[in-house]
Amino acid sequence: MVEEPLAGALGATLGADLVPAADVPLLDCAAMDGYAVAGEGPWAVVGRTLAGRRGPVARLRRGEAVEIATGAVVPDGTTAVLPHELAAGSSEAVHGRIGEGRHIRRRGETTAAGTTAARRGSPVTPALLGLAASLGRDTLPVVRPLVRVLVTGDEVVDEGMPRPGAVRDAIGPVLPGLVAWAGGACAPAVRVPDRGRDLARELGGAGESDIVAVCGSSSAGPADHLRAVLAGLGARVVVDGVACRPGHPQVLAVLPSGAVVVGLPGNPGAALAAALTLLVPVLSGRADRRDPAHTGRRTRLIGPTAPHPTDTRLVPVRVSRDLAVELPTSGSADLRAAATADALAVVPPSRVPGRLPGRVELVEVPV
Length: 367
Description:
Elements: E1 2-5, E2 13-14, E3 29-30, E4 34-37, E5 43-49, E6 64-68, E7 80-83, E8 88-89, E9 93-95, E10 104-105, H1 126-134, E11 139-143, E12 146-152, E13 156-157, E14 167-168, H2 174-181, E15 185-186, E16 190-192, H3 196-204, E17 211-215, H4 226-232, E18 236-240, E19 244-245, E20 251-254, E21 260-264, H5 268-287, E22 298-302, E23 312-320, E24 323-326, H6 336-340, E25 343-347, E26 360-364
Helix pairs in contact: 2-5, 3-4
C-alpha cells in the first residue's frame, strides 16, 4: 500500500477506509443562492455574504435577512434560506414563503467526522477522488498491484506489418488497459526468445509480490517451455489448463518466492479469455476489491450459438436489455468480435446439438 497524490490515484484500489477528520460542511451553510432569513417575512435586508468570506452579520434577528451565495456560512439565528426565485422585493426588503429549515446544509450533513465515507477495497473512481478532495485529502492510501509482462515468441514483432512467417504482438497492447481495469498497473513488456533458459532467467528473478503474465509458451508445442520452466523452478501449479474455448492452455502457478505466474495462450483471442479467467481475479484478490469481470450478471442468449460437447465456450456477444447475440469470429486468433463485444457469454458444454441454456452468465469486458 502506498500514499498516492489524488491526481495519480485514479483506477487504483482504496487501501484503507476513508474517514474524515472533520465535519463536512464544517458549519451550517446555504444550499442555494438567495436570502438567509430569520423568522417570518417580510425581512429587512441587512447585508450580503459570499462563500469563502466572513459575512457582515454574525447573528440575524427576527425579521432580518442577508443575501447569501450557495456554500456561504449562514448567520446564527437563520431559520431558512429563501431562494432568489421565490423572493420578491428590493435591495432593502424581501418577502416570500419558505418552510423552516429549508435549503440549509447542516454541519456534518454531507459527511460527519469519524464516519466511513468509503470502504477499503473500493475502486478509486473519479467520484471517489472528488469525495476525497471534499474531505480535505491531498493523498489517498491505495493498492495497485504491478504486473510484469513477458512476451515470448521469436516470430513476434512489435511494430509495422509483419513479414511472412511473423506475427504482430496483439496481446501486449491488450494487457495494460485490462490490468488497469482490474486495479493494477503493467510494467513495460519484456521480449523473451523461444528458449527455456531465457524464460527461466526472467521468472527466476520474480520477487515475492510480483504478478507475472507470460504471453505465449503455455501450450504443448516445441516452443512452449513454460510448464517445464515452472517445474524446474519448483513452482506449485494451481491451474493447469481450463476446460474452456478459447483459452484452454492457460496456467496459474506460484513460484517458491511467492510470485504468481499467469500463463496466457499465444493466440490473442485465447489470451484475452484466459486473462479474464485468471489474471483479472488474481489482481482483484491482491487488491482486495471486487472482480470486475465476474459480476454474476446473466442474460438470455439467442441465435445460432452451438455449445461445445465437452468444454465451456466463451462467446463474444452484444447485449441489448436482457438479450445477448453472438458475434461472428474466426477462431482463437481473432480479436474482431471481442473488440466490439459487450461481454463474453459463458456457454456450458452440451452433447445435444442446438441445446442452449435459457440464461447464461456474462464475463464482463472493459469498454
